[in-house]
Amino acid sequence: MNVTLSTLLLVEDDPNDVMLFRRAKDKSNLANPLQVMQDGEAAVAYLSGQGQYADRNRYPLPALVLLDLKLPRKSGLEVLEWLRRQPGLQRLPVVVLTSSKESLDVGRAYDLGANSYLIKPVAFDKLLEMVKVLGLYWLILNEKPDIHLSRGE
């Protein structure tokens, strides 16, 4: 049995949001490693193990993807749609973490298979609370599906 902590993948292009998330993660004592991709194409490359992300020891499949919607190069919705079509990855838990409260975005995200849709809190204490709950629920309490993808699939 693997005793290493499961990796989180944060797909976020705003450096301030990344910094605040890292701070909240550290302050909440969430010890899981964090990988950050700053655009949708990088997220797809990471998840598919392409190019520099081929080494799964260095770039393991995440236990949870935290996905912004408004991303350069490929939107969060495009990443989600791609992910749900990938054998071996389609069950990977994805939490949309975005500033969009648009009902069309919410509906589209769920239609494409998002497991949850959260609005980024403005206040740091609310973000900290959200990160604690995310860690508890998705990384400890939630029963995870088997996820595996060999290169070339």
From TrEMBL:
SMART domains the UniProt entry points to: REC (SM00448)
Residues with PTM 4-aspartylphosphate: 68
InterPro entries with a match to the protein in the record: CheY-like_superfamily, Sig_transdc_resp-reg_receiver, TCS_response_regulator
Record keywords, A-Z: Phosphoprotein
The keyword Phosphoprotein belongs to this UniProt entry's keyword annotation: yes
Every Response regulatory domain range: 7-135
Gene3D superfamilies: 3.40.50.2300
Database matches in PROSITE patterns: RESPONSE_REGULATORY
GO biological process, one term: phosphorelay signal transduction system
SUPFAM superfamilies cross-referenced by the UniProt entry: CheY-like
Alphabetized CDD domains for the sequence: REC_Rcp-like (cd17557)
This protein's name: Response regulator
